[in-house]
Specification:
Blueprint (H helix, E strand, L loop, with lengths): L5 H5 L4 H33 L14 H21 L13 H23 L33 H14 L4 H6 L2 H8 L11 E5 L5 H9 L4 E6 L2 H13 L6 E4 L12 E7 L7 H14 E12 L9 H10 L5 H4 L4 H8 L2 E8 L2 E7 L4
Parallel strand pairs: 1-2, 1-4, 2-3, 4-5
Antiparallel strand pairs: 5-7, 6-7
This protein binds S-adenosylmethionine.
S-adenosylmethionine binds next to helix 8 and strand 2.
């Protein structure tokens, strides 16, 4: 196996030990997520027993299915690193300094979140936040987050919140786009790697861009997002870590500020479930417009009813517990039809753990 971490070079680690270490690392994150949820629920009951967030009990037969899916994604992640899709060291990447800095803040924030959720206050923003120029569907406290996507406070807590929600599998889920991305870029083998342009739509705090950079260090990367605060956070993450800094722009995915056919690949991770149907279609059409003929568009988002009916109770709870106003429609939406309508062809889908992937090609003219 190709090994890139400095420790590996000093002390050769047998393959099975490295794999076991990775599995244990992931298991630790998963237990941490569970412990956090259990502890905060108990604490909330003590402090504020009247606060109640409704959720349906998850049928016991769903739990082993979920565990199986989690094991499968960890195995797939390991296998992709093993066959060199990305360096093995990426598997152990974790924003530790953010964790120690912001975990206490996140705990403090939880009470506010639960109170807002209980009182059904879904559009509450700090008075100093400029609200002009955003589409109205965006001005929401998604996941009951303090300030929605519109403050540095929210941007600093977001990755940690997602890590806890998915038991440490947010990056393994994001990394599932990398193998199909690299595969699709083989169509541009004669293009120098530095001239390959990849856009991430709704790049948020930049984690997907960082992962793409880990896998394709020479490519020119671009990211857009509506949130200035999340772009600041992305800029910080991508500057702190080695590599070319992607070009980041504040923009709506429905109106991408790029000329036609500019990118060899376009990606979008965890955006579509937060858009109303019409905006979903417009983002797909814009992604089609800016992608080169022969290029690829890859979506990673939540599972849907059609691919994971056995996880219906979890999807229903997600929509109830985390303020996700467009999720109910999203889980029954036909994204293949939308991609097809925009002009994409060769559309394939994959499902890994709690995520669905759509890989679509813009046909050559
Ligand atoms: C759930 S987060 C996902 C962020 C990131 N892709 C990730 O993997 O964590 C959704 C992101 O979409 C952005 N967003 C929502 N609607 C958007 C739109 N119409 N155009 C651009 N960004 C949008 C939000 O600001 C937020 O950063």
């Amino acid at each position: 196996m190709q090994s890139t971490s400095k420790i590996d070079q000093l002390i050769p680690i047998p393959d099975n030990l490295a794999k076991l270490t990775y599995q244990t690392f992931q298991q630790g994150k998963s237990y941490f997520g569970l412990a956090h949820k259990a502890l905060t629920t108990q604490l909330l009951n003590l402090i504020s027993p009247r606060v109640e967030i409704k959720s349906k009990p998850v049928p016991p037969e769903v739990i082993p299915k979920l565990q199986q899916r989690m094991n499968q994604i960890i195995e797939a992640d390991w296998q992709d690193a093993e066959r060199g899709v990305y360096p093995q060291s990426v598997l152990f990447d974790n924003p530790w300094s953010d964790f120690f800095r912001y975990y206490p803040v996140l705990c403090l924030d939880t009470l506010q979140i639960w109170q807002r959720a209980n009182q059904k206050r879904y559009q509450e923003f700090s008075p100093d936040i400029a609200m002009d120029g955003y589409p109205s569907y965006y001005l929401q406290n998604f996941h009951h987050q303090t300030d929605g996507y519109l403050s540095d406070w929210s941007a600093n807590l977001y990755d940690l919140q997602v890590e806890i929600l998915f038991g440490g599998t947010a990056d393994p889920m994001r990394r599932r786009i990398l193998a199909p991305l690299k595969q699709a870029l083989k169509a541009f083998d004669s293009t120098p790697p530095q001239q390959i342009r990849i856009l991430d739509v709704a790049c948020g705090t930049g984690r997907t861009l960082k992962l793409i950079r880990d896998a394709l260090p020479k490519a020119s990367l671009f990211g857009v997002d509506l949130s200035p605060a999340y772009l600041r956070k992305a800029n910080q993450l991508l500057t702190e870590n080695q590599g070319e800094l992607p070009q980041l722009l504040q923009a709506n995915g429905e109106e991408l500020p790029y000329v036609d056919n500019y990118f060899h690949a376009t990606t979008s991770v965890f955006l579509f479930h937060e858009l109303p149907a019409a905006a979903r279609q417009r983002v797909i059409e814009e992604s089609f417009r800016v992608t080169q003929p022969g290029g690829v568009f890859i979506i990673c988002d939540s599972i849907q009813m059609s691919d994971s009916p056995e996880l219906k109770p979890l999807m229903e709870n997600f929509h109830e517990m985390f303020h996700e106003p467009y999720y109910k429609h999203y889980i029954t939406d036909d994204l293949v039809e939308r991609l097809d309508k925009a002009g994409f062809t060769d559309i394939t889908t994959e499902v890994h753990f709690m995520s669905k992937y759509l890989i679509a090609r813009k046909p050559l003219v």
